[in-house]
């Protein structure tokens, strides 16, 4: 049996200390959380990412070129 719940939630302030790839943030109804992971190649890349610049044990450049912030 499936239940479909419609809610309206207003959050004025929320502070999240940290979240990782496997974290779940649920606001709303309690119930079963079905995990879902989807990988998409939205950039149309055909090869591996370039290597970062290593100095000792530190990587000084990102392994994947990042876009500059847009204002």
Report on this model:
The protein is largely without helices or strands and 71 residues long. It has no helices and two strands. It has a two-stranded antiparallel ribbon with strand order 1-2. Strand 1 and strand 2 (58-59) form a beta hairpin. The radius of gyration is 20 Å and the shape is elongated. The model has no long low-confidence stretch (mean pLDDT 76).
Number of beta strands: 2
Give the oligomeric state of the chains in this entry, treating copies of one chain as homo and distinct chains as hetero.
Answer: single chain
As a percent range, the share of strand residues is: 5-15%
Order of helices and strands: EE
Helix count, per DSSP? Answer: 0
Average pLDDT over all residues: 76
* Shape by Cα distribution: elongated
Side by side, the strands of the main sheet go: 1-2
Largest sheet: 2 strands, antiparallel
Low-confidence stretches: none
Helix proportion: under 10%
Distance between the termini: 48 Å
Structural class: little secondary structure
Radius of gyration: 20 Å
Summarize the structure.
By secondary structure, this protein is largely without helices or strands.
Descriptors:
71 residues
Write the layout of secondary structure elements.
Layout: E1 54-55, E2 58-59
Antiparallel strand pairs: 1-2
């Amino acid at each position: 049996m499936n239940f479909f719940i419609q809610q309206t939630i207003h959050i004025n302030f929320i502070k999240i200390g940290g979240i990782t790839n496997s974290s779940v943030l649920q606001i709303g109804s309690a119930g079963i959380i079905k995990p879902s992971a989807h990988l998409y190649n939205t950039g149309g890349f055909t090869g591996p990412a370039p290597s970062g610049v290593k100095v000792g044990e530190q990587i000084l450049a990102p392994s994947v070129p990042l876009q500059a912030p847009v204002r």
